Amino acid sequence: MPADDQTEPEPSVEHLNRLETDGGAGDVVQARDVHGGVHFHQSLPPFPVTPRQLPGPPHGFVNRQSELIQLAKVAVDEAGAPRLVIIAGTAGVGKTSLALRWAHTVRSQFPDGQLYTNLRGYDPGTPATPDHVLGGFLRALGVPARALPSGVDDRAALYRSILADRRVLVLLDNAATAGQLRPLLPGAAGCLTVVTSRSRLSGLVAREGARRLQLDLLSEDDAVELLGRVVAGYRTADERAEQVELARLCARLPLALRIAGERAASRPLMPLAELIADLRDESGLWDALSTDRDDAEADAVRTVFAWSYRALPESAARMFRFLGLFPGDEFSSPVAAALAGSSTWQARRDLDALVGAHLVEDCGHDRYQFHDLLRAYANDQLTVLESEHERTEARRRVLTWYLHSADAAQQQISPFECYQLDLPSSGTLAPARFDSYHAALSWYRTESGNLVAAVRAAAAAGEHGITWRLSAVMRAIQMHQNAFDEWITTARIGAESAAVLGELAGEAEALDSLGKALFQSRVLAEAGACHRRALGIRRDLGDRFGVAVSLNALGLWELRQRRLTAAASYFAQGEAVFNELGERRWVALLRANRAETLCERGDYPEATDLLHGALAVLRDVGDRYGLGNAQYLLAWALRAVGRPAEARSAIDLAIEIATSDDIDMRLAHWLAELARIELAQDEPGEALVSSQRSAVIQRRLGDRSREAIAIDLTGQAYQHLDRHDEAAKFHRRAAAVHREFNDPWQLANSLANLATALDHLAEPDEARSCRREATALLGSFDDPVAAALRQRLSEDR
C-alpha cells in the first residue's frame, strides 16, 4: 500500500459514500462506519461527458439581424418534435458564420453540451461519412472506443439513445446531401440540430419537418460595413461609391469581401480606384476563361481569390498551392513545410502571409485550416502550375513526414511494442521528435485524425509502401490508446496495400495488427482468421520471429475462448522458437502466458514456478507492462493456494505499475484480482470498493465483458456481507452481459453465484434453474477447474 495510506486507521468498510466516475488512481472511494451492512449504488454512472465542441464565434460579423430573428422563431419546439434548422445558401455567403454566431447566443439553453463537425460536403477530397462522424460524436459523449458499435445503424441508435433525455446543440456544417445527415439527427425534442449547406435539402424539409432559412447576399450597406471593418485603422479616405463598387465586384459575399478588404488594408496608400481596376482586370480574365455564365457569385469569388493570390510573394503562393494536397483537416507549420519542401521557418513566414491575406485561417497553437472553396482553388492552381512530378513529390514528402513522426511517437509511447522496420529516408524533412512519453502522446492525440486521413490518401495515391508502413507504426500507439475504430481501419488498408505490392512481410504484419484490433473488439472469428493467414505467410517466408509472434497471438485467441489445451500448445511452440532465437523478453512473456493457462486449469504450483523465472527476466529488461502482468498472475496463483498475504504484495506491485504508468486497461483488470484477494482475507467491504473501481474503469474503457466480471465480484462481496438481495441483483446484471456476448464460461460462473444468493433468499426453483443452465454450459469444458465447478453445482442441488 502507498505510504500515505498506512497511517490511516483500518477502515470498517460498511457504507460507500462516493464513487468517482473516472475510476482513476486519484479517486476517493471510501466506505466506513455504518454497522450492519453495506449499501452500494446499484447503477454504475452513465456516460458523464459534456462536450463543448463549438468553434469560436466569428470575427467581424455584420448585421444579419433579420436572419437571427428568423432562426429564433424556427427553432421553437413544436409539439415535442425534434428541432432541425437548415441554413442554405451559395458558397461564401456566410452560412457557417451565421450558424456559429447564433449557436453561441443560444448555447446556454443546452446545458448538456454542443457537438460540431465539418462534413466537408463540397471539399475536393472525400466528404465525412456518417459512420466516422458518429464515432467522433459518441467518443465526445463519453462512449469508449472499445464500446463503439461497428455499423452506422447501430452507432446512430446508440447516439439517439444517449441524447434521448438530454439537451444538446448539434451543428452539422457544410453538408452535401440528406443521406449524409439523417444518421446524425437526434431523435429527442430537447436537442436542436443546425445544418449549413449549399443545397436546399428539400428531402429533410419534407420528411423530417426541417425549417429552412435561405441566406441571401449581404445588402449593399452591410457589405460596405464589412469592408469598413476589415480596413479600419488602415484606410480612412475611401469614397462611398468606390466601396460600393468593390462590394459589387465581390458579389456582396462575406468571404470575398474579407479577402478583398485585407488586400486593400495591406496597401493603404494605393487609391481604392486602382485596386478596383486591378480586380476588374482579374474579373475580365475569369470571364474570358469561364464556360459557365450563370454562376455570377462563383465567378466573383474566384476573381477575388485570384486577385489576392496573385499578390502573394512567390514562396507563399507556392505554399498555398501545395496545401491543396493536404489530406486532413487542421495542419501545422511542419506539415506545411513538408508539402512545400521548405524549412519550418520559411513555412511559418509563408503561413503568416496566407493568414494575412485571409487565404488560410489561423486556429491557434500552430494549427491552420482552409475554407473548402479556398482548398478547391489551391488544387486548381496546383494542377495548372505544378507538374505531375512535383505534385507526386509533394504528396510523398508529407506522407513520409507523417510516417517518420509516427515512428518517433510509437517509440516513446510503447517502446516494447513498437514495430521496427527500415523506413525510407526522410531526406531534408524535419519530422516531429519527442523527448517524453507525454509529448508524443499529445502529438498523437492532436494528429490522430490526420494520420488516418494520411493512410487513406497514401493508398488512394498508390503510395502503398508508405501506406502499410504508416499503419504498422501506428499499431503500438492505437493499441495503447484503445483506438479500435481507427486501428481496424488503418490495419485493413495497410493489409490491402501490402498485398497490392506483393510485400508479404508487410501483409503479415498488417494482418497481425488487424487480428489484434479485432481480438480486442471481440470480433473473434475474423481475428483468428487474420492470425492464421499471418502465420501462414510468415512460415512461407521463413520468418521465425514472426512465426513465434503469430503463435503467441493464436494462443491468446484460444485462451480468450477457454480452449486451454490449444492455447498451451501455441504458447509452447512460440516459446521454443523465441528461445532458439535468444529473445529473452519474449520467452518470459510466453512463459507468463503459459502460466495464465495453468492458472485457468488450476495448476497453480507449476504456474508459480514459471512466473518467478519470467519476473526476473522482465525486471532485468525493464518491461514494466509485462512485469505488472506477471505480478498479477503470481497474485492469482498465490491466492488460489491459500497464501493471500503474499498474493496481496504481488498485486500491490502490479497496481503500482499500472497507476504510475497510466495503464488504465491493466489497472481495471488487476483491481478485480485485488478484490478477490480481499475476499480471501475476509475483507468484503474493501473488496466491494475494489470491484466497483474496476467496473467503473472498465465501463469508461468500453470493455463490457470485463466490466461484467467486476460486477459479478461485487455480488460476491455482498454475499460475504450477508446482503443476498443486492448480491442477486449484481449477479443477474453480470449474467445478462455474458449471455449477450455468448461467453459460456463467465455466464456459468455468474449463474452459479446467483444460485448461491437465491438459496439464501429462499428461492429454490430459480436457484435450481440457474444451476441446470450453468451445468449445461460447462459441458463444453474439460479442464479441472470446470470439473470442480460442475461437481459443486451438483452437490448444491
Automatic annotation (TrEMBL):
<protein>
    <submittedName>
        <fullName>Tetratricopeptide repeat protein</fullName>
    </submittedName>
</protein>
<dbReference type="InterPro" id="IPR019734">
    <property type="entry name" value="TPR_rpt"/>
</dbReference>
<dbReference type="InterPro" id="IPR011990">
    <property type="entry name" value="TPR-like_helical_dom_sf"/>
</dbReference>
<feature type="compositionally biased region" description="Pro residues">
    <location>
        <begin position="45"/>
        <end position="58"/>
    </location>
</feature>
<dbReference type="GO" id="GO:0043531">
    <property type="term" value="F:ADP binding"/>
</dbReference>
<dbReference type="InterPro" id="IPR027417">
    <property type="entry name" value="P-loop_NTPase"/>
</dbReference>
<feature type="region of interest" description="Disordered">
    <location>
        <begin position="39"/>
        <end position="60"/>
    </location>
</feature>
<dbReference type="Pfam" id="PF13424">
    <property type="entry name" value="TPR_12"/>
</dbReference>
